[in-house]
Amino acid sequence: RPFGHCLVAGVEKAPLKVNKTMSKKKIAKRTRVKPFVRYVNYNHMMPTRYQVPSEMGPQSLATDQQMDTTDGRIEAKKFVKKLLQEKFTNPPADKSGRPSKDVLYLRKKLRF
């Protein structure tokens, strides 16, 4: 690419709210995550106060070699989906035992 760019992985469609009265099938459907993996121009990036926790290993989510082929991109998306789905359902605990705020922001729509 002739411009400065970075490889970005994120949530395209976040999970919906669930409650106790819903069936397990409906809960499973509503807690699905749709990820995206793409190159983004630096000019289109906007810094936020949110950070990816180090235990997620952001360097290993997707590689440039995977992005060269369509099969690689699909494989990268599947890996990101599995990782994000796991973090949504079981967020890691912080030092006080509550769910970590580093991952809870993924559940909310970012308002700018």
List low-confidence stretches.
none
Q: State the major sheet.
A: 2 strands, antiparallel
Could you give the count of β-strands? 2
Radius of gyration (Å): 16 Å
Report the span from N to C terminus. Answer: 29 Å
Largest beta sheet: what is the strand line-up? 1-2
How would you describe this protein?
The protein has helices at residues 24-30, 64-67, 70-89, 101-104; strands at residues 5-13, 34-41. It is of the alpha+beta class and 112 residues long. The protein has a two-stranded antiparallel ribbon. The longest helix has 20 residues, at 70-89. The two termini are 29 Å apart.
Short synopsis of the structure:
With 112 residues, the chain is α+β, with helices and mostly antiparallel strands. The chain has helices at 24-30, 64-67, 70-89, 101-104, and strands spanning 5-13, 34-41. A two-stranded antiparallel ribbon has the order 1-2.
Write the layout of secondary structure elements.
Layout: E1 5-13, H1 24-30, E2 34-41, H2 64-67, H3 70-89, H4 101-104
Antiparallel strand pairs: 1-2
Features:
two-stranded antiparallel ribbon, alpha+beta, 31% helix, 112 residues
